[in-house]
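Readers of this paper often ask what the protein records in our data store actually look like. Such a record has a labelled line for the sequence and another for the backbone structure tokens. Nothing more is needed to write down the fold, since each code stands for a local backbone conformation. The record that follows is passed on verbatim for readers who wish to inspect the format.
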Amino acid sequence: MYIEVKVALNHLHLTPDQEKIMKNLTEKTKYVNISYVYLSPIDSAEQFVKI
């Protein structure tokens, strides 16, 4: 999610290969259980604090 947010916020254009990698990464991680709370801006690398 962090990478997707950085791409969107910075209006970056991905190559077809990069888009394929992002889709693959999203598919592989969609069932990962994330039990974290957002405590800072969405584009901050320090946004997660484990509960």
In short: Residues 23 and 47 are 23 Å apart (CA to CA). Residues 16-29 form the longest helix (14 residues). Strands lie at 36-38, 48-50. The chain has one domain: 2-50.
